[in-house]
Design a protein that fits this description.
With 143 residues, the chain is mostly helical. It is 52% helix and 10% strand. It contains six helices and three strands. Strands 1-3-2 form a three-stranded antiparallel β-sheet. Strand 2 and strand 3 form a beta hairpin. The longest helix has 24 residues.
C-alpha cells in the first residue's frame, strides 16, 4: 500500500518533474555515471549538476559513491514503485473513460451504417435566398 501523503512520494514526483533529472535517470538506467558525465550533455557546471543529483538523492532514486575525488552515481529505481502505484490508482478512471469513448464511437458507427444511402437521382439543390440588406436609418438634417 502506498502512503499518499509520504514525503518520499512528494520527492519522487518533484525529482521527475524536471526534464534534466529525468534524462539523468534515463542515462543512469544504462550504467553508473560520474557527476561530470551526467553534467556534460547539458553544459552545466558540476555545482548545478550536483543540485539536480541531490534532488534525485532526496527522492531515493540515486545513490552516490565517492571514489577519491570522483562522485559516482547509480540508479535505485525502488522509489519509482510508489509513484507507479499512485498513478495506478487512477488507471480505473482512464480505463472507464476510454471504454465510454469506445461505446460512443461504436454507437455512432452503427447509426451511420443504418442510414439509407442517398439516391443517385437527387433533385438539384436550391440556392439559398439572398439576404435582404437592411436600410440605413435616415438622419434628420441639422438646422
Amino acid at each position: 500500500m502506498v502512503d499518499y501523503r509520504s514525503e518520499r512520494l512528494d520527492a519522487v514526483f518533484h525529482a521527475l518533474a524536471d526534464p534534466t533529472r529525468r534524462a539523468m535517470l534515463h542515462r543512469l538506467a544504462e550504467r553508473e555515471h560520474s557527476v561530470g558525465e551526467l553534467a556534460e550533455p547539458y553544459r552545466m557546471t558540476l555545482a548545478a549538476a550536483s543540485k539536480h543529483i541531490k534532488a534525485l538523492e532526496r527522492a531515493g532514486l540515486v545513490q552516490r559513491t565517492v571514489l577519491g575525488r570522483t562522485h559516482v552515481c547509480r540508479l535505485d529505481a525502488g522509489p519509482l514503485h510508489g509513484g507507479f502505484e499512485w498513478l495506478r490508482h487512477y488507471e480505473r478512471y482512464w480505463t472507464q473513460r476510454l471504454d465510454d469513448l469506445e461505446a460512443l464511437l461504436r454507437a455512432e458507427d452503427e447509426a451511420q451504417a443504418r442510414k439509407p444511402a442517398p439516391s443517385k437521382r437527387s433533385a438539384p439543390q436550391a440556392k439559398p435566398p439572398a439576404a435582404k440588406k437592411a436600410a440605413a436609418p435616415r438622419r434628420k438634417p441639422r438646422a
